[in-house]
Design goal:
156 residues, alpha/beta, Rossmann fold, five-stranded parallel sheet, globular, Universal stress protein UspA-like protein, UspA, Rossmann-like_a/b/a_fold, Universal_stress_UspA
């Protein structure tokens, strides 16, 4: 299967793994000359908080989730790495439940691969469904690559 579109979905917990996420998506996208859809999914509360932190007017017609996502530090760090690697990308922002919204985005952009970050979970945590990464792994319309932070990987 040829990769044409890779969805790299980030959220509020991914600030500590931007380098790992960027490296993973570059390794997958570069050989295939694939386009990356770099998406930040916000819950409504997270979105409102980011608007406030960026001093953006929530009532303005100019404020859209794509614009808010493009100004978010996690997205900007990954954009810089993708630019350095010569990877084509589009930035998307969306508001909703993290897991189901990522799956909807993957379907909507006809992603051939989804890349998401996640944390090490305790044995009890593994038995309980509900994490974003787990929902994406179980519901994605295409293969999913799960990326842990270097700190989590070092604990193995």
């Amino acid at each position: 299967m040829t990769l044409q579109t890779i969805l790299l979905a980030v959220g509020p917990g991914d600030a500590d793994r931007t380098e790992e996420l960027a490296e993973t998506v570059i390794e997958v996208a570069a050989p295939a000359d694939a386009t990356v859809v770099l998406a930040h999914v916000f819950t409504q509360d997270e979105y409102n908080e980011v608007l406030e932190n960026l001093e953006m007017d929530a009532e303005s017609d100019q404020v859209r989730p794509d614009e808010v996502a493009s100004r978010h530090s996690t997205i900007r760090k990954i954009q810089q790495r993708l630019d350095e690697a010569g990877i084509d990308y589009d930035v998307r922002g969306d508001i909703g439940d993290h897991g189901s919204t990522i799956v909807e985005l993957a379907t909507g952009v006809a992603a051939d691969r989804v890349v998401v970050g996640g944390r090490r979970r305790s044995p009890t945590g593994k038995a309980v469904f509900g994490s974003t990464a787990q929902e994406v792994l179980l519901s994605s319309p295409c293969p999913v690559t799960f990326v842990r932070s270097a700190e989590d990987a070092a604990e193995d």
